[in-house]
Amino acid sequence: xxxxxxxxxLTLGFVAAVAGIVSQAVGLRRDRPTILRRAPGYAAxxxxxxxxxxxxxxxxLLTNDTTVRYVAxxxxxxxxxxxxxxxxxxxxxxxxxxxxxxxxxFTLAVAxxxxxxxxxxxxxxxILVMFVVCAYFFALMLGPAAPFHSFDPAPGYDGPGPNxxxxxxxxxxxxxxxxxxxxxxxxxxFAFAIGALVTGRLGEGWLIETRRWTLVAFGFLTAGIVLGAxxxxxxxxxxxxxxxxxxxxxxxxxxxxxxxxxxxVMMQERRGLLRVWNxxxxxxxxxxxxxxxxxxxxxxxxxxxxxxxxxxxxxLLSGFAAIVVVSVGLIGWRGELLRSPGRIDSPxxxxxxxxxxxxxxxxxxxxxxxxxxxPLIIEALRDERxxxxxxxxxxxxxxxxMVLLFLMGVAPVLPWRRTNTETLAQRLWWPxxxxxxxxxxxxxxxxxxxxPLLAFALGGFAAGSALRQLTLATRRQGLRGLVGRxxxxxxxxxxxxxxxxxxxxxxxxxxxGEFDLSEGQTARVGGHTLRYEGSRVVEADNRRELRARxxxxxxxxxxxxxxxxxxxxxxxxTPSVDLGITRDVYLSLQRAAGEDNPTVSIRAIVQPxxxxxxxxxxxxxxxxxxxxxxxxRRRNPLDPVSRPVPEEVPV
Length: 651
Description:
Structural class: alpha+beta
Distance between the termini: 52 Å
Largest sheet: 6 strands, antiparallel
Number of strands: 10
């Protein structure tokens, strides 16, 4: 039954998407509003098909229906709830199914949001593009990434369960869906960008209408990246949270280009600048989500995050190539209409700072893209394997990060068009004093070295600038002054600053050691005392846990463990962390006690300010949410009666 429901749902979704494409194309070609108004119905059918298929797979997993091959290969009756739910996105086919469900939701939301303007050709083309993307992903699930294949299990057969790294922390129930909400959310502004290029309506109206959709996608992608770093810290046992893994970079690339777009779009809305640049950034952001999917799910890279090799790689790479060709072709076709009516009057202006900011984000993205794709290119051309590791990324991106922090301090105080040095000096007086104050605090907590102290100084400078802006806003409008793009953006800046300082601190002045301890023995690391209180074994449905009991500073007991998974026999360590506002004591069990050797091997890492990473991420998400709700009511830019920005005549 699950197989039949799943295939029926996928077939319904694909047929509805194709029908939507044909309907939109005919309606636009013949200018038939009655046909264009059918879009919400087709979108609802796409969503229904995706929901039925998703529900069928979840039902198969929860009931351990091993007649479905995906369940036989990835599910298990021993997998505890909610990890059996999360098993759906723990492997290739299920993750594409989740992607299609979210895409169907966004398509339906757009069709209903613009239901009163479905006869507007810009909206019509945007919905057509979304139907094309829907058809593409449904075709993947009916072809190379089909989740509903039959399986003939032997009597009593039970599957191995999901990857053991994906079933020992609750964050795996939230991290991938958040990433996919961000990835898929960028389909909406991309679709409107293509619609604007096709119709020739290249003014600023479509940007204003899609701004909130972009911010929603950006917020979810930010949350997904932060949760992924948190999962890595809590699960992998190495004491870190970001290792420049290729799959980490794959999610970071669209975040960088989206950040550049969110900054530069203000220049187009206010001054009509950077039209080509903004369209290119939007198309690049959506294209990079498909490229990231290719890197994660094609098997071309080895990573704890990546799935095994499959036939889907060529399809995803073809989709990425199609996005690049169509985007570049349309931008080239509309070159004359994309000429900006204004120009940057002075480099010492907000426009100048935003342009420099965009260039830095673009260079940052290029460095990351080069680092992750260069080994693949060399392997394809020469059949040689090379690696580009963490030192390359740290060396190349650290200076860029420092300059971005500096610009975050300067840009908010700059006026539009031009300023003079006297005004600039007056506005930077308080931020400039925050820099040495931050360095003083850093020295007090133990920071040493040029790079971490410079990060604290620039962080203090940028934080002073953002706080100055927020103080002025709240004086004028109270707490309502925090709502809106400008001041919500300042809150996002504060979150970025907190994360940057936390990264500098945790990487630069940590203490660590590895100790073999017998029961009752103690060890010291970074000013903290660790006492081994003995071991215990905990039996769970799907694993056996070997736990070492470590008392930290004579207070609480923490239990790092080694999990022995019954279905596969794999052993995976899980750390235990004494969390603190100023520092974490991170404990991982390297070797458990046994009958032959009663000692345990414990690795301990004391690193400061790690918890501020997650706090900074929450501040960023809160700031993004505040940015999505303008402080004052805006007129609808797609309403021809009240459109505030005139559009060019379609060509």
